[in-house]
């Protein structure tokens, strides 16, 4: 009995001991004196955060048993509020337990954000990238995000080595200022582009394929030498396609290896190439839904048996098939080139499998992106209408006509399915560009000395497609002022209406031509690209400051009213009416100024001109501009001096002074160029894009032409010729031309070179 009681008491004692040892370990640390309970919890250091908010996040409370693990959890919970940059706990023995004091240090409230050291990126752009909020406690995550966003901004400008620090500063007014300290350093450029594994093509040949290139002499114009990750990804595709179109069907281009020099100034890029074997075309066939016959389909294909495998030909074949089917209304034809390789003979059989689906109709046309241009201006250029059967060629023509307006940077079509299986919606998405400009400019040339100009022009007035201009130009040789307005779709019809008013003064070597007047014309389109117009022009013209060596036959017929009617035929296939890159423009114009119209200057004038544009290869454009004209007096007098043809200058023969080329005679020992009654001139140019984003191009040119008198024919051996080069810039002030011309077979008194500066449209 006694032993049982003893064993029970011993068991109770063991359980109580275990409870204090394992459940309440703080007791063993702090001892039993004064109790192991929390006597009081205090908050110290909080000024902006209210105490109740802090206590709501804490589990350590008065009267509870003190627990170190719970105190640590309370510290973490307070940090999670985001208001404190430091939290400490002071534990003090009180008379009835432990006194816990939570000592908090609040984060500073950001009153101001500033940037130091930034030169390449404006403060406004940096502020936009920064997400740190003002008048709130500093948020470390948003601070880190802001630093990364600033790095990304600099990376877009090729500053990959930018250093970004931050500093908190208290201003004299007691505000907290967050300062981003930016160390831009120099941009890291590409020093070398290498290739590993290539045996078929040399490094030089492959470097011509990729756009990632080392820094060159004219990198500041061409943009080469900059490291861009996106460009590297595109270069992998360029290299792959280069091999695919040369027969290497199984080529692999690995991710390029990029390394940085020790001084962190240069990148070295290495492309790893696995070329594989070269394949030839075995059999070529078509299968599936064939519209015509198998032989007719095969005849349209570029890919032929025996050729070297060429992925470019295959893609062009797919486009051609899509066009053939698209012109028949099959908008969703599926063309799949099935390829079967023979690894022994290294050949590839190609079978184009065709699934045409339903014949499709245009259910609806939606237009978007046009914030200025009215819908009707766009719709009238579309060659396909709602309810029409789908036609690929007409869709392409519609895009070309819209781009030719010169109102848009881009025009894109999307053709999602309609409400029925045999319909689609045509979504026309345009990206408008500025079509109005206000410019004031000044320049210098050896032919005109100082040139000052100003203009206000609008190509898409009120979004209606109207064109208008007010311009003026002043130099030592000329003064001209122009107002013009035209509506290419008058009252939403095919009629074209235009009017103008002008005042000009031009100083020739032996006289000054002074005139003012206006014109009006009305025309109509016919066929796809042609138009015809009938016009009237009245001009009061006179010759003043006539030199003494001007013969009497010209002095007796120098002033009067020109009142003429004109008939003009135009054909325009240019891809853009402002800055053409391909196509042609041709014009034939007949003008009659007769006394029956009230004219004092009576003549018949015929003028023909043609412009031709063709891209030779990427960034190189060939242009020609040819003109021929003839004027005949309709009375017994000679053709008026002010209406005769004089060549030379920035818009004709650029290696000669303005109006210095033409028939001449010697009067009183002095030469007098009196101009011709006929002329012919041709200008040929090669234009090369130097830096497309800024609109900077280089040009080389060759000019040939002459003006001839009434008693002369137009022999080719009498042509005057020149050549030269220049820079062109589509500037905010408008197109600027800087050109140096050099005459061929220079005559006595002619300059070795002529510098021309011009403001206005290019040839």
Descriptive key words:
763 residues; alpha+beta; 16-stranded antiparallel sheet; 4-stranded mixed sheet; 14 helices; 34 strands; 18% helix; extended
Structure notes:
- There is one protein chain.
- The protein is α+β, with helices and mostly antiparallel strands.
- Helix content is 18%, strand content 43%.
- Strands 17-18-19-20-21-22-23-24-25-26-27-30-31-32-33-34 form a 16-stranded antiparallel beta sheet, with no helix packed on it.
- A hairpin with a 5-residue loop joins strand 5 (163-170) and strand 6.
- The radius of gyration is 41 Å and the shape is extended.
- Mean pLDDT is 85; it is low at 16-34 and 217-222.
Secondary structure layout:
Blueprint: H1 2-23, H2 25-30, E1 38-44, H3 51-56, H4 68-80, E2 84-93, E3 98-106, E4 110-116, H5 123-129, H6 140-156, E5 163-170, E6 176-183, E7 189-196, H7 203-207, H8 219-222, H9 229-244, E8 252-253, E9 257-260, E10 266-274, E11 280-288, H10 294-299, H11 311-326, E12 334-342, E13 347-355, E14 361-368, H12 375-379, H13 392-404, E15 408-414, E16 423-432, E17 436-445, E18 449-461, E19 466-475, E20 478-487, E21 495-507, E22 512-526, E23 530-544, H14 552-555, E24 560-572, E25 583-593, E26 603-617, E27 620-633, E28 664-667, E29 670-673, E30 678-691, E31 696-708, E32 720-731, E33 734-744, E34 754-759
Parallel strand pairs: 1-3, 4-6, 7-10, 11-13, 14-16
Antiparallel strand pairs: 2-3, 5-6, 8-10, 9-10, 12-13, 15-16, 17-18, 18-19, 19-20, 20-21, 21-22, 22-23, 23-24, 24-25, 25-26, 26-27, 27-30, 28-29, 30-31, 31-32, 32-33, 33-34
